[in-house]
Amino acid sequence: MPTTEDFISAATALAPAFGLEPRGVTLLSRSENVVCEIDLGRERAVMRFHRPGYNSLAELRSEIAFVGSLADAGIPVSRARPTIGDGYYVEADVAGIVHHVGVVAWVEGAPLGSPVHAGDANVVEQYTQIGVLAAQIRNHSLTWQPPAGFVRRRWDAEHLVGEAPLWGRFWEVSTLSDDQRLLFTEARHELQKVLGSLSTEPDRFGLIHADLHLGNVMANGGHLTVIDFDDAGYGWFVHELAVALHPVVEEPFFPEARRAMIEGYRSVHSIESAEENLIDTFITIRYLMLIGWFDDRRDLPNYSYFPTLVAGAEKAARQFLHA
Hints:
Elements: H1 4-14, E1 24-30, E2 34-39, E3 44-49, H2 57-72, E4 80-81, E5 90-94, E6 97-105, E7 110-111, H3 124-143, E8 154-155, H4 157-161, H5 178-196, E9 205-208, E10 217-220, E11 223-226, E12 233-236, H6 237-245, H7 254-266, H8 273-276, H9 279-295, H10 306-321
Parallel strand pairs: 8-12
Antiparallel strand pairs: 1-2, 2-3, 3-6, 4-6, 5-6, 7-10, 9-12, 10-11
């Protein structure tokens, strides 16, 4: 397992390939990807060591194209920095593990929260703008023509609750109790029926960020920027809203956050009541997805959240089944 020092050393050695002369390198986070801050003196950049086996090079290049198109459309995102040669990624062996490595522009500010927690109640004020951003991404999906060779995953019924979900078979996780596995299996079967009935036409299903939680929204004063399109792909637009709301589901201000987000969303794109009513269903899906995600990453520091996540998933699954 590579150490922090291994990644810092690798980032320092790789920086010149992107035309960077670092004064210092700091490891910022170690989760889905390993992220380093590159100190350049008057400015900074972010270097990402992508999780091996998650995104292919073709998928990573497609991410660059999608994010660049969002930036061109005026949506606040972090653009990628090209290499000195031809492309945006280099390959690096870090302590015997090969990673695709890229660099994106530094975003000033701080995340609004984490994938599973809100920073504080003041985040309610930001949910209007989160709704605006989600709707802008939806509008963009309806008009943008991806380039030849574009490939990103699909967050459809098969890959959310099918036999081989993208984030793992959550209903079989070994650390769950027998009762929990039975509950999540029953919920999965019912969710398959619901998702199987939903339209995947472009007015309901298209390119989304797919991981628009509070940790992926940077705030600098009143300005928000969306980061980390690692999971971006084709999915239901309502899925985007559920992911954004999931970190505050158990907070007393959840109803206010939900109303604010829908208000912001509707200021840019309409959302019918039938679609809005699916938010709770997709919040249940988000809970279940995260069980599989965390189970595959037990070495991460935030795995300590797993018991709380499972409790929330139980509650959401029961509410879904008895709705």
